[in-house]
UniProtKB/TrEMBL annotation:
Keywords: Membrane, Transmembrane, Transmembrane helix
Keyword Transmembrane helix carried by entry: yes
A cellular-component GO term for this protein: membrane
Transmembrane segments: 48-69
Protein name per UniProt: Cytochrome oxidase subunit II transmembrane region profile domain-containing protein
Location(s), subcellular: Membrane
Amino acid sequence: MMQILLFWAIVAVCLIGQALLIHAAWRLRRQTTELPAGVPQSHGASDLAWTVGTAVLTGVLLYGSFLALSA
């Protein structure tokens, strides 16, 4: 029983964290501010893709953990 509660607590923390990361990457993608010379430019679309990709991979790992826990 304790393992199930701990698992769902971890799922909640991961969901909140990933939602905040995706929100930040989405805002960065839409940013139109010019940076000073010499400051590296970030590509917002690729940052968003990497963020969503890691969120999906985290979901897959959590699903695998759930299957192993319920077995």
